[in-house]
Specification:
Aminopeptidase; 4 helices; single chain
Amino acid sequence: MNHNIIIVKITSVQTLERCAAIYPSAYNTEPWNDNWTYTTALALLTCYYNTPEFRGWVALQDGKIIGCAIGNIEPYYSGDIFILKEVFVAAEAQNLGVGRDLLATMKENLETINIKMIILSTRTPIIDFYSKSGFKVMDDVSTMVYAY
């Protein structure tokens, strides 16, 4: 892991409030250029938190949250799987290995409870990040959207 960065499990909705504070800085710049606010980020993260079998981790540096990984366990015909919903790192802490450390801790924790597969959806600019952590693009799988 990185110098003085520690990864811990999310155990309360109050932690999500602190995660929501960094969410816009992670996604409102390149390559995403989204338009998140604290309020919309908190609504999304709270929705994930209230999902059955929620699991989440935060990266802390000097007690300050600088990154987060969130998802939930779901049943699957071959055994339970983990659906990774979000991995984000505050803009000022990006490219320092924080996301890599979050993924490594998450994978170690999930392995201890017999999760054999992690599935995520992402946009093209970040595929290499996940590939470096052992994720592979699934053949014959596409993400589709219907928008009004």
